[in-house]
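re: ur question from yesterday

yeah so i grabbed the chain u mentioned. its 79 aa long if i counted rite. heres the sequnce exactly as i have it in my notes:
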Amino acid sequence: MIGLRTSWITSNILLVLGPKFTLKDARLVYAPFLKVSVDQIDNSNFKKSHRHLFTDVGTSVSNRPGRPARVYKLAYLFP
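ran it thru and got these structure tokens back, copy pasting raw so excuse formatting
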């Protein structure tokens, strides 16, 4: 029951992200519900534990140096 509730809460929290988002966007939305700062959520572990919710759709467009961020969508809403 707790697993189902956690999954439901996670899914609904992430709805505010809209159709496309980066993992940092997802962590920014999710952090207040965990009552931690965004820096305390490890990007790799977050991606691994939530990968069933995300579908990779490409990279962001950025004029900044470095690798552009990956862009995702919620798999269960936007198949």
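noticed a couple things. The domain at 2-74 is CATH 1.10.10.10 (Arc Repressor Mutant, subunit A). also Residues 1-5 have pLDDT under 50 and may be disordered.
anyway ttyl
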